[in-house]
Design a protein that fits this description.
Length: 181
């Protein structure tokens, strides 16, 4: 009888330990949402600072970026897109910024994010705004639109598997009007 009690207590302890350990590793909606919001913020910082490696790292290896200038497929194409954007910005600034002056930075902001999670896949929508200043130094909305995202949970982190950028201020890029993939 004594051995039976000891075995029962040991089994019960083991079961409870396994249950609580498994619960501590389970992802919750709140955790997933926080990680997805953090991913979106990392994306925006990488975009604003034109950090191609950090930007590309927010996508899955086979991720798709559908933006106003075209469609990039895979991290390498996405990385090259940001490298090219940086080169284009430097060339534009060299022609338009007076000597001795620094270009005024533009900053992107995300609002009103909706996130739906189903296991290791998620979808998200969010508004975005790009704020910059002109020659008068007053900040103003430069561009705006929304994102429609598909995400995957890969190797312990959320990544964009597909990001569609709707540039709603730009003719032909409003809701539902996109370049075909």
């Amino acid at each position: 009888m004594r051995q039976y009690k000891k075995t029962t207590v040991t089994m019960l302890t083991l079961f409870c330990s396994m249950f609580f350990i498994s619960q501590s590793f389970a992802r919750s909606y709140a955790d997933d949402r926080a990680e997805i919001e953090n991913l979106a913020a990392r994306y925006m910082f990488a975009l604003d600072f034109l950090n191609a490696d950090d930007y590309a790292a927010t996508f899955t290896e086979d991720g798709i970026l559908n933006h106003g200038g075209g469609i990039e497929k895979g991290r390498q194409e996405i990385r090259e897109f940001i490298h090219e954007s940086k080169k284009t910005r430097k060339e534009r600034d060299a022609k338009t910024i007076p000597e001795g002056k620094k270009p005024k930075p533009a900053r992107h902001f995300i609002t009103n994010m909706i996130v739906d999670v189903e296991g290791d896949k998620a979808t998200a929508k969010a508004y975005w705004v790009n704020v910059s200043s002109g020659n008068d130094d007053y900040a103003r909305t430069f561009a705006y639109g929304h994102y429609e995202d598909s995400l995957k949970y890969v190797n312990g982190e959320w990544l964009f598997s597909k990001r569609i950028i709707f540039n709603e201020y730009w003719e032909g890029r409003g809701y539902g009007v996109l370049k075909p993939e």
